[in-house]
Design a protein that fits this description.
The protein is mostly beta strands. It has 3 helices and 21 strands.
């Protein structure tokens, strides 16, 4: 019997790509755009940044317009890692990755804004990390049985930093329920051990589907998601982002993604691309972030079967 050759991960197809700086009004343009999360809602992208606290609102036609702009208070040195929306309460939730706690550890924070990006309140998330830059990378709000839940994606495997966090097979999503003064931990979702990502940088959940991206692997994982049991109901499928002709990683700083009816929307930072000279890296660090649209490839290499 002939040996079965495993089918390589299919590639994503780039549909379009725009720099955020090209879409913003001239009077609000900045030298740097350290984009870290994106939410697609009602015909707009809402983009958060980890180097300042203002939120960009950009029409999803990706055309330059004076209607695009920054909203909320623009405070240097304060930023967010993720963004989600509570439809029932009509509130935006913005994630602070980790803030130093009195006991020396770090705890994430969720900041609540109304539809006009007026600050409502802050709530601590009941989870601790050992460092400020290895915490949660994305959040998703879920309304279930008239209760509000927050699903938070850990950057490192098993929610660890360092070498332990880079050991694949330990993807984790922490589940929290909203209480009066904090988001209380109620459950841990273990992503399939077969998902061999070295890190996790973005997550989106909608209509029974979950999508997760990795910077290090430059890949997207899609699966079915059961809210009733907080489980991924199948092993899912992995897709590669486009590579250079020599096979090296082209998109190595993917920071966020959001479902929409036709596409998977992503945004990433150009700065710090891997395997480039120091001079080029410095030049790239002053470039703005880019918004991209990817579609799943419809054929798997060496196979005529369509991908799901």
């Amino acid at each position: 019997m002939p040996k079965r050759v495993p089918c390589p991960a299919p590639k994503l197809k780039l549909v379009c790509e725009r720099k955020i700086s090209d879409l913003m009004p001239v009077h609000q343009n900045r030298r740097r755009w350290e984009a870290s999360g994106v939410l697609v809602r009602d015909g707009y992208f809402y983009v958060v940044f980890d180097d300042h606290s203002a939120v960009a609102c950009i029409a999803d036609d990706l055309d330059s317009s004076d209607a695009n702009g920054l909203f909320g208070k623009d405070l240097e040195g304060i930023g967010y890692e993720g963004i989600t929306y509570n439809v029932h309460k009509q509130r935006f939730y913005l994630l602070v990755e980790a803030r130093k706690h009195a006991k020396g550890c770090y705890r994430p924070l969720l900041v609540e804004y109304d539809n006009k990006f007026k600050l409502i309140r802050e709530r601590v998330i009941d989870f601790t990390f050992k460092s400020a830059n290895k915490g949660f990378e994305a959040v998703v709000h879920v309304r279930r049985n008239r209760k509000d839940y927050l699903l938070a994606l850990c950057e490192g495997n098993r929610c660890k930093g360092g070498a332990k966090g880079r050991r694949p097979g330990g993807g984790r999503v922490q589940v929290f329920q909203k209480k009066a003064k904090e988001w209380s931990h109620v459950h841990t979702i273990a992503l399939p051990a077969s998902l061999q990502f070295a890190d996790y940088s973005g997550m989106s959940i909608a209509n029974g589907r979950v999508a997760v991206v990795s910077q290090v692997n430059s890949m997207l994982w899609l699966s079915r998601f059961e809210e009733a049991s907080w489980t991924c109901s199948d092993p899912g499928k992995v897709y590669k982002f486009p590579r250079f002709q020599n096979g090296s990683i082209r998109y190595g700083n993917i920071e966020g993604l959001s479902w929409s009816p036709q596409h998977v929307w992503l945004q990433f930072r150009i700065s710090g691309r891997r395997k480039i000279s120091r001079t080029r890296s410095i030049l790239k660090q002053i470039n703005p972030s880019t918004s991209l649209i990817f579609q799943r490839a419809v054929r798997c290499a060496h196979s005529s079967a369509r991908s799901d």
